[in-house]
Amino acid sequence: MGGSSSSSMHSWMHRGNTLITFFGTVAAVLCLATTLTDLRHVYTMPDPQASVSLAEVKRLAPMTGSKEQATLTFSMDADLRSVFSWNTKQLFLFLQAEYSTPDSTVNQVVLWDTIIQQKEKARIRLKNHKTKYSLIHPSKGLKGAPMNLTLVWHVMPRVGFMYTQSRTFPGGRLPDKYMQ
Amino acid sequence: MDFRGQRNAEWLLVRILIVFAAVSFVAGYSQGDFQLMVNINAVGLLLTALLVIPSWPFFNRNPLPWLAPLHSAHEK
């Protein structure tokens, strides 16, 4: 492109083609430059603040098919506004319970999620909030299980790379006996 | 469009798009506004299309001089 040859410019359609093609190259360079600014943003942004705690275990009960279900509420105070750069399209934010039982040591269950599309909405305060999805364990073992709560956010850009950050908080232990 | 016009059109095309891209990047980044960058480039693309795609008279100022017709059998 941009050489001294004008052989591709003799008809209006050829000129249109040259224009669109070169515009594509320019757009790619802009995307690359934008990605570099995002890279800089990731390394220089203030740390996002978050704290999550288990508010209450409302219910812990057996389900059909030898499953178990826990119903929880949680509190959250998070400020993820610093994550937003000029190239951030949205955050996908979710809360995950991590616990171990005698039969399976690593279990992760998503309890709640949300999509944040504006920087101002990345300030989140929830008090005794009901989970969106209930905690269902496929076998027995929730009683007395130690649990962590992890808040994870995927940062989705307009152009460039996606990345993930998270914070883990202690969630205590589930009750030692069933409660309806 | 004559040969010199074609060369000039391509020269313009490349430089205008690059200037718009550079300005849009600086403006978008400094304002923290991605959409602004996109819009400035859209304007640049349209303007450049308007300038280089039609065969404007100023691209036709250097017509190729054709040889004079040879005398042929028809000419009697």
Automatic annotation (TrEMBL), chain A:
Annotated Pfam families: SPC22 (PF04573)
Main location: endoplasmic reticulum
UniProtKB keywords: Endoplasmic reticulum, Membrane, Signal-anchor, Transmembrane, Transmembrane helix
Annotated membrane topology: Single-pass type II membrane protein
Subcellular compartments: Endoplasmic reticulum membrane
Record family assignment: Belongs to the SPCS3 family.
Protein's name according to its UniProt entry: Signal peptidase complex subunit 3
UniProtKB/TrEMBL annotation, chain B:
Chief location: endoplasmic reticulum
Membrane spanning stretches: 12-30, 36-59
Record's bilayer topology term: Multi-pass membrane protein
Coiled coil (residue ranges): none
A Pfam family of this chain: SPC12
Record flagged with keyword Endoplasmic reticulum: yes
Top-level division of the source organism's lineage: Eukaryota
Keywords (A to Z) from UniProt: Endoplasmic reticulum, Membrane, Transmembrane, Transmembrane helix
Subcellular locations according to the entry: Endoplasmic reticulum membrane
Entry keyword annotation includes Ribonucleoprotein: no
Family indicated by similarity: Belongs to the SPCS1 family.
Its biological purpose: Component of the signal peptidase complex (SPC) which catalyzes the cleavage of N-terminal signal sequences from nascent proteins as they are translocated into the lumen of the endoplasmic reticulum. Dispensable for SPC enzymatic activity.
Protein's name in the database: Signal peptidase complex subunit 1
